[in-house]
Amino acid sequence: MARPRFLPDNMTLCLIAVVIAASLFPVSGQAAVAFDGLTNAAIALLFFMHGAKLSREAIISGMTHWRLHLLVFACTFILFPLLGLALKPVLVPLVGDELYLGILFLCALPATVQSAIAFTSLARGNVAAAVCSAATSSLLGIFVTPLLVLLMIGAQAGESNTLDAIGKIVVQLLLPFIAGQIARRWIGDWVTRNKGWLKSVDQGSILLVVFGAFSHAVVEGIWQQVPLFQLAGLVIACCLLLALVLFIVSFLARRAGFNTEDRITILFAGSKKSLATGVPMAQVLFAGGAIGALILPLMLFHQIQLMVCAVLAERYARRPEVEAEPAAQG
After folding, report:
1. From residue 78, how far is each of 25, 107, 110, 218, 294 by CA, in Å?
2. What are the backbone angles phi and psi of residue 270, rounded to the nearest 5°?
3. Residue 222: CA atoms inside 13 Å, Cβ hemisphere, count?
4. d(CA 209, CA 125)
5. Would you state the pLDDT for residue 22?
6. Helical H segments across 65-194, by residue range
7. How much is the pTM?
8. Quick one: CATH architecture of 28-317?
9. Which stretches within 175-227 are classed as H helix?
10. pLDDT digits over 127-176, tens only?
11. How far apart are the first and last CA of the chain?
């Protein structure tokens, strides 16, 4: 039987199921301590596998397109935060103070890797540049995201020392990633052959972190603190933020003189935020029940960006074949 078109993807359905399970059966006490240890191990495994999967050759091949990469990084780490701050008078009445902090956290995150590349490929964009931009954005985020979080959210981030925050990110995320890159020499072929079930390992790690985060949040009373009208407002806020970013990114790429393939890459790499990186980072940067409310905007934005970008990618894919335009490189 064909899958109904109205159903979300499997990962989104699993996220919904995990949030429901955490709401009904939250872990607490000593069980929560043990679960936190399991979650930390899952995060390390997640970034180890990212390191083992990432091809250095693919990254090097796209590095020469520096103007494209600079624009993508500016959209990811400058445009998003500025929009998040500028929209505060509109967003706070819609979602409340706590969810607004989650939107700021979302704005500070790096871009996605897999989906940005997949959509660029589907839309017949510059895939090599997408690989380079998305992967480098993910690595830069390890250092840039804590700085942005502490600048925008301040003491409410649960960290008073920027170096401490970066240090935790480096130990829990970057070191496993580097270990994966080193191990790629021996396990790279095996990882390539087993991409299918290794994707399940990635998704399982994210689901574990989400379950733990929402367990903490439920124990702290998140569903009493976040009324239904604020959840509806959050959907509107995520749609508004994504629409503005897509419009501005597209406008900037066109004004900068990039060809169609490069504009596609900039659009998909510069307008997306990473759930796979954001959830583990929230686990490191924030404490206690605050995590649930802080990752809720990211979870919603992630699903909305996937649906919208899927439509855009299919529209670009239907454009007629033409001779390649000259790339606007530096």
Report:
1. 39, 9, 11, 33, 20
2. -95, -5
3. 25
4. 33
5. 85
6. 66-74, 80-86, 88-108, 114-122, 127-152, 162-169, 175-193
7. 0.77
8. Up-down Bundle (1.20)
9. 175-193, 195-219, 222-225
10. 778 877 877 888 888 889 888 988 888 645 544 455 666 676 777 777 88
11. 50
Tokens, residue 220 = 């702290």
pLDDT given for residue 324 in this prediction? 45
- Specify burial of residue 170 (Cβ count, 10 A radius: 0-12, 13-18, 19+): middle
Task: Tell me the three state secondary structure of residue 5.
Answer: coil
In angstroms, the CA 184 to CA 83 distance is 38
Low-confidence ranges of the chain (pLDDT < 50): 155, 158-160, 323-330
Nearest one of 61, 62, 74, 75 to 133, comparing CA atoms: 62
Cα–Cα separations (whole angstroms), residue 37 to 10, 44, 76, 200:
26, 11, 31, 20
Burial letters 230-254, b for 16+ CB under 10 A, else e = beebbbebbeebbebbbeebbebbe
- Each residue of 5-52: pLDDT tens digit? 556 667 778 878 888 898 888 888 888 888 878 877 877 887 787 778
Structure token pair of residue 149: 């979080």
The Cα–Cα gap between 295 and 193 comes to 33
- Which residue is listed with tokens 């510059």? 126
Going from N- to C-terminal start, the domains of the chain cover 28-317
Asked whether 53 and 202 are in contact (CB, 8 A), the reply is no
